[in-house]
Design goal:
Elements lengths: L12 H8 L1 H22 L7 H4 L2 H18 L10 H17 L6 H29 L5 H28 L14 H24 L21 H29 L6 H22 L6 H10 L3 H32 L8 H34 L2 H18 L9 H15 L2 H7 L7 H8 L1 H20 L6 H18 L15
Helix pairs in contact: 2-6, 2-7, 2-8, 2-12, 2-13, 4-6, 4-17, 4-18, 5-6, 5-8, 6-17, 7-8, 7-13, 7-16, 9-10, 10-11, 12-13, 12-18, 12-19, 13-14, 13-15, 14-15, 14-16, 14-19
Length: 506
Amino acid sequence: MTELTSQKPRLNFWQIWNMSFGFLGIQMGFALQNANTSRIFETLGADTSSLAIYWLAAPVTGLIVQPIIGYYSDRTWIPKWGRRRPYFALGAITGAIALVLMPNSAALWMAVGILWIMDASINVTMEPFRAFVGDLLPDEQRTTGFAMQSFFIGIGALVASFLPWIFANWLSIPNTAPEGVIPPSVKYSFYIGAAMYFITVMWTVFSTKEYPPAEDEDHDEPAMTPDEEPIFTKKFSKIGSISIALGAAFSAYVAISGIDPQLHVLGGGLIFYGLVNVVGMMLTKKGKTKAAMVHIVKDFITMPKTMVQLAYVQFFTWFALFSMWIYTTSAVTSHIYGTTDTTSLLYNQGADMVGNLFGGYNGIAALAAIILPWIARKTNRKITHMLALFCGGIGLISMYFISAPAWLWMSMVGVGIAWASILSMPYAILSGSLPAEKMGYYMGVFNFFIVIPQIMAASLLGFILTTFFGGETIMILVTGGISMLIAGFLTLRVEDDADDHTAIPT
């Protein structure tokens, strides 16, 4: 396949606004999920040490869904709907339904199941939005496009995170409920989020047009030439065998040693990756190199160098973020509010504070998203991202030293600056290194380096919490802060040869 268009015209401010507007609703749903899922799980009887494993639904769903959606959206063209917009619409419908169902879960197993559906829907919508920027914007406007997405992400998360507090304090809707029941303030927040998810995504669907495919675009090309088939057959076989062996050995060790059974997830993940390579090998041996699985496996092991370098940055970044999303509610309510009783007013005040803090860092991110392209133009994108990650790492670590809730806002300033950069700079760097005809797929694969650290966090954090930290969840946030500092240093190793340092147009 070739470039979608030989020369992409520059888009004006409102065109970039419209193509990014759907992220407002997506992030409202995502923020409600992040800030309230642990609260819902604990209300329905989840043990704190098991929260990470229940949250595993989110990253596993992303690991499976995003590259598949990316692969097929690259190959989709419906004249009235375009390439990415059919996926926007599908995700908006199913995501809105899941958001309505989540706070009405009657049991823990139901809430975990709905989390799978909700996160799958968000991934179906979100992945094509990343490729959308690469599809429609010329190189010099891509930093602007991703920064605009970050702006809407910040605004959407700010509003969504404050919704339970607004309902409770401004509209006097109850913020507590009997044991095992989700408070009405949380339910109404999810209903608003569902409506906004659907409306804003459909706004982008109907207000933005996509470029038609090039005349010579071929959706049926093989993944490799006949000469390459034996080479990749050996590679798939080697990678698959090693991965399966390591996964099996690790799972056997976990079983024999009697350590935390949640660690089986890591062994299972290695085995799954190995099996995917084995399937790729078998298909290649049979000459079925046009199969989607062969394309997916081959393109993964031949990804661009810049993408590999960014993978290390993403790993430590998202390990830190997942630590924060899972354990901030527990850490704040226990370390600062001094309670673990989910039915108490003090616990629910602390949980609301976490929602407000998450809203606050997203509000900071919305403002930082406007400034970061300017900083990147004055320095470069690597330095900008490194400094932002340092701010986030220091913010997370500082929460250990805080005793008064009001000071937590200072911690969130650092997290917000980091969040704005996390949502824009890696994608802006990456997009310039990707072949246009595989933009959707590689943006989906890039999600692996968000998902894998989340799976590891979900597998390891419960074990670390009980084994090394004696159940003190605040120490998980400190661990996350250190991880984000490491990510900042690793940013300096990334190669970024593009000159896209354009600020948001006015």
